[in-house]
Structure prediction request, 136 residues.
Amino acid sequence: MNFHTRKWIKPEDLNPNGSLFGGTLLRWIDEEAVIYAIVQLGNPHVVTKFISEINFVSSAKQGDIIELGITATHFGTTSLTMRCEVRNKITRKTILSIEKLVFVNLDAEGNPTAHGKKEITYAYMSIETNPKKENK
Ligand SMILES: CC(C)(COP(=O)(O)OP(=O)(O)OC[C@H]1O[C@@H](n2cnc3c(N)ncnc32)[C@H](O)[C@@H]1OP(=O)(O)O)[C@@H](O)C(=O)NCCC(=O)NCCS
Prediction:
């Protein structure tokens, strides 16, 4: 698993008890996962379909540096399933893990469409950000 994104925990990321707010962390994860899916599927039109149990293992506090890791675990026909782990960058202590995040590949009309991908690719892939425009 690659840990691409790092976050420095700031006052605005905290809950009233002074630790990292879970909702903020989930927003970061959703964005991390959608970017991963866009790059893997070569399509900017992907949506979050399903997120499995979220295990908040330990908390983070102001000033901590955390890192977000995502990896693909299953390429379906229209879907991509990923696993996520968040850890403290310095201590490597796990903060959160999610076994399944499922994203669905959509066509220009917003319907699920086959992505044709079978495995993780690292090669540069061009991404058409406005396929509707191309059809005009
Ligand atoms: C994404 C959406 C278009 C899919 O529609 P749908 O009718 O469920 O589509 P399908 O039944 O064809 O399923 C599409 C894929 O999702 C998978 N899927 C559907 N429900 C699932 C679930 N509960 N858990 C895991 N995977 C699921 C299917 O297995 C299928 O994958 P595959 O093609 O690789 O086999 C529709 O559910 C939707 O628009 N949801 C809202 C998405 C959204 O707005 N997300 C942001 C929320 S804040």
Summary: DSSP finds two helices and six strands in the chain. Helices lie at 22-41, 131-135. The chain has a mean pLDDT of 93.
